[in-house]
Amino acid sequence: MLPMSRFIATIGGHKPPISLALLASVGVLICFSACDFLIPEPQDEYVNGRLRVTYWEKWTGVEGQAIRNVVDRFNASQDRIFVDLITTSQIDRKTLVAIAGGEPPDIVGLWNQAIPPYAEKGALMPLRPFMEKAGMSESDFIDVFIVMNKYKGELYGLPTTPATCSLHWNKKLFREAGLDPERPPRTLAELDEMAQKLTKYDANGNIVQLGFSPAEPNWWPYAWSAWFGGRLWDGHNITFDTPENLATLQWIKSYADRYGVDRLRRFRSGASGQFASPQNPFFTGKIAMILQGVWMANFISQYAPDLEWGAAPFPTAVPGLDYVTVAQCDSISIPVGSRHPDEAFEFIQFLYQQKEIEQLNIDQWKFSPLKNVSPDFVARHPNPNIKLFMDLGSSPNAYCLPDLLIFYEYSDEITPAIDKIMNGLDTPEHLVKHVQNQVSKKWARVQQVVEKREAAQQETRP
Amino acid sequence: MTPRERRNLRNGLIFIAPWIIGFLIFVAYPLVASFFYSLCDYSVLRPPVYIGGLNYQEMAQDPVFWKSLGNTVYFTVLFLPLSTLVAIALALLLNTGVRGMAIYRTIFFLPSLTPLVALGILWMWMLNGEYGVINHVLNTLLKPLGVQAPAWLQSITWSKPAIVLMSLWGVGHAMVIYLAALQDIPVQLYEAAELDGARAWSKIRHITLPLLSPAIFFNVTMGIITAMQVFALPYVISSGEGGPARSTMFYSMYLYHTAFRYLRMGYACAMAWFLFIVIITLTLIFHRISRRHLHYGQ
Amino acid sequence: MANNDVGLSSSSDVKNRKHLMSELELRPTNEALVPANYVVRRKLGAVFTHAVLIAGSVVFLFPLIWMISTSLKPLGQTMRMPPEWIPDPVMWANYAKAVNYVPFLHYAQNTLIIAILATLGTVVSSSIVAYGFSRIEWKGRDKVFLILLATMMIPFPVTMVPMYSVFRELHWIGTFRPLWVPAWLGASAFSVFLLRQFFLTIPRDFSDAACIDGCTEFGTLWRVILPLSRPALAVVALFHFLYCWNDFMGPLIYLIDQKNFTLALGLQFFQSMQGGTPWNLLMAASTLVVAPIVVLFFFAQKTFIEGITMSGLKG
């Protein structure tokens, strides 16, 4: 009670000075302006007299350092352009928003799956005109990595760091199981057989050593059909409901049946979150064979340098089909709305000098997207199996999904389907139709909109 | 209107003018615009193309939409009662005037202050089926029963309860409000009850809870609004995928995917509007139910 | 078993409640749990309460202790299972590394600027708006207030894209402005709600008495209501500051140049693409982000609780 009554007593008698209110408002105004001064303005066009070109890239850590070295060398090699490399997390979302906002970066590093939808929506500039001026040609590059950066015949991105994947196996575990450590499985049936020999259980029936599972590491669930000669899409239609894809799902189911849904789930749980650590199940010998990418050698050297391992093309279920792999890449593009596309491409041209692009890839433990390879590239490369990954990249059976506008929707439909199989909740026969159905609907809808828009454009054209 | 009423109206509107401006720019316009977008195919990168009610039609037949809605409702229905219980229980305990109350209060409030990214990763750790601490403890307890603890985040049945468990760590906000409300209940009421021979549970049931009811009403209402929009934890836990088999695909995650992964902002706006309606409906239902039980200390 | 008719027996008590509240003092009511009559039972009750509280604290602190423990481990040890609590060796250097991995101090500065501007704006505009909704009787007031309440139910995605276009038209994308200017326009419905409830509890006699010589409405606000509302204003400020400090979505959408990033965004950088997250550094960074808030809350909690008590929020 007291404070209030005291308070009222003090103010009851007189009016407070007007200047107090005035002071307060002036104070607020000063605050405002001061703070406005503190707030940074959007980018300056020139830095030290050089034209600023912004480059958003997703890489951090070692990979980030690799591209930073290239950028630094470019900036040092001339004094007209300054490439401002900005490490960006959630790059696809940020780029989308920035392009829509009309303030995109001059150069952006996306993933190849984003290229067709962004291109279709007119968010990326076609690169061929730039390449022609610079004397670069599409045929300089390994085919599959160019195909995945095109949409309807136009090139919208260039591959910076390509990747392929293969079978990795643990030689010591092979030896212990009485298998020849230098001889990996050559067919899928052999893989299944060897996996059984390599699987051990404990007293409670839990798996302590797993030969193989399609659910590990679960990075490319959509791609297993490649090894069955299946295709997700033929360039015009969704082709999930095919005998090859059915066979794929049945093969996956065979693992769930043979090893037990529950046991595999427990194994998956123990493995989750452990990729970049000494406890990675492949490094500790908890899993003997795995499908992994070209970067694996890097992680092995960091976390399990004593591991005896080998890499070979992942075996297929189709006789005569060999050197099958999933091909992916990081791409570099120039967004529509970029303020300095020509200068941006000058940097890209610098990047694709053989020694630069090779150095970038060596630093990231990957291989160069150029067909031409320096004679000492393989020798210099830290990955002992780099030649295999390069051959896989050049193989006619390198699998990618060209011109697919709905990659994410498709993949997001396949992943839960496989989850369901691994959890014994649905059958391959039903799922192969269900996924086909769902994805076809989405594709039909996208086509509708694209057609509508093209029709509207035709009308406005004279 | 009398001159006085007119003057009051004018003054009232002047005072709420900042809010009116803000409302028009940041609420009304976006609401109308997003409703318009929901009737279009809009990829953000291109101008919207009008398609009428097709998005809503598609929504009605989209199994993923229903799954995500179901997951979110499941979470809300499981989480709200539990969090209310835990928050009130903690507030009751803290209200007993124990020493070091300030420290306890901070401790219970802390988890709701931590960045969700860090919390999410921590929990993924602790809930690891084979080596996580939680299962370590659970398995030792369950051993005599011959049952094994579930592989929480890899299990289709246990992934959502795991998220509920993680979210319970954030009851600090609600607890603080209940604590404040409890401290407001006059001592005399309890003394009077004791004179009539009431014991602990009775006192809680007949004095504490009814007088807490406005606070409960407030917290549960806010709880419905936030629970239906939960995004960060499931996203971090499932690495943005909503697995396994879409068991952790929450409504807001599917909305996010639709907008930013599939580039379908129009569909996302339709989903957002639907969510808005659902939240309003749930809140109204809750309001109706609780009217009978609300005591404003009369 | 007495059937307490709470309504009748406590009406006078409740009238006194408002006076009790203004005591600016907290009076714990431990009679709810501890039987009043026996010293022994009371002591046992206290022990029981303590035991449960300590157990609860352990449970609640568990993840945070883990966070700190991990932040001091060398990278190889962070993922080790079964988990170890005491890092060996203790890597205090992780904190230095975390601070250098991203421009931590710079991000902290950015976060502070945004948070302070937004909090200031919220306090100022919410007080003015709440005054209009509580101390002036005007036609349709309560209906408009319901609209304000309804805005709290609008999910963020509904307004996200159009709001982005608005800011884009204003050329504010990439600046801090989208993050604090709306706060000056009463954007925080929650704050307005809280303050309005509080203002309603101030008896009309006070404001009438203080302005016998007839001051304006604004004068009443400035000279009477605001000084009485310090705890409630503190609650609004604290809640909003907390929200800004941890806000991730806003900065993610509106900030483009890394130099302008906030701490919440900075934490993202520790999660790299191909699975090579430096967990120990991430935990160290997270600890650093949480620490100031914890300290702030610990010292401000008394005011905080008072503010909620007196706001009639819960009543």
Describe the secondary structure blueprint for this structure.
The complex is a heterotrimer of chains A (462), B (298) and C (315).
Chain A: H1 2-13, H2 18-38, E1 46-47, E2 50-57, H3 61-77, E3 81-87, H4 91-100, E4 107-111, H5 115-120, H6 128-134, H7 143-147, E5 150-151, E6 154-155, E7 158-163, E8 165-170, H8 171-176, H9 188-197, E9 200-201, E10 207-209, H10 243-259, H11 261-271, E11 289-293, H12 296-303, E12 309-312, E13 325-326, E14 328-333, H13 341-351, H14 354-363, H15 377-380, H16 386-394, E15 398-399, H17 407-422, H18 428-460
Parallel strand pairs in A: 2-3, 2-4, 13-15
Antiparallel strand pairs in A: 1-2, 4-14, 5-6, 7-14, 8-11, 8-12, 9-10
Helix pairs in contact in A: 3-14, 17-18
Chain B: H1 3-15, H2 17-38, E1 40-41, E2 49-50, H3 54-61, H4 63-94, H5 101-109, H6 116-126, H7 133-142, H8 159-167, H9 172-182, H10 187-195, H11 200-227, H12 232-237, H13 251-261, H14 265-291
Antiparallel strand pairs in B: 1-2
Chain C: H1 6-9, H2 11-21, H3 39-71, H4 75-78, H5 93-101, H6 104-134, H7 141-151, H8 156-169, H9 177-180, H10 189-200, H11 204-210, H12 217-228, H13 230-246, H14 249-254, H15 263-268, H16 279-310
What spatial form of chain B do the alpha-carbon principal axes imply? flat
Helical proportion of chain A, percent range: 40-55%
CATH superfamily of chain B: MetI-like
Largest sheet of chain A, in brief, is: 6 strands, mixed
Strand content of chain B: under 5%
Please state the oligomeric state of the protein chains shown: heterotrimer
CATH architecture of chain B: Orthogonal Bundle
The value of Rg of chain A in angstroms is: 28 Å
Structural class, judged by helices and strands of chain B? mainly alpha
Helical amount among residues of chain B, as a percent range? 55-70%
Please give a structural write-up.
The complex is a heterotrimer of chains A (462), B (298) and C (315). The longest helix of chain A has 33 residues, at 428-460. By secondary structure, chain A is of the alpha+beta class. Chain A has helices spanning 2-13, 18-38, 61-77, 91-100, 115-120, 128-134, 143-147, 171-176, 188-197, 243-259, 261-271, 296-303, 341-351, 354-363, 377-380, 386-394, 407-422, 428-460, and strands at 46-47, 50-57, 81-87, 107-111, 150-151, 154-155, 158-163, 165-170, 200-201, 207-209, 289-293, 309-312, 325-326, 328-333, 398-399. Chain B has one domain (46-291): MetI-like (MetI-like fold). Chain B is built from 14 helices and two strands; from the N terminus they run ααββαααααααααααα. Chain C has helices at residues 6-9, 11-21, 39-71, 75-78, 93-101, 104-134, 141-151, 156-169, 177-180, 189-200, 204-210, 217-228, 230-246, 249-254, 263-268, 279-310. The longest helix of chain C has 33 residues, at 39-71. Chain C is globular, with a radius of gyration of 25 Å. Chains in contact: A-B, A-C, B-C. Chains B and C meet through α1, α2, α4, α5 and α6 of B and α1, α2, α3, α6 and α7 of C.
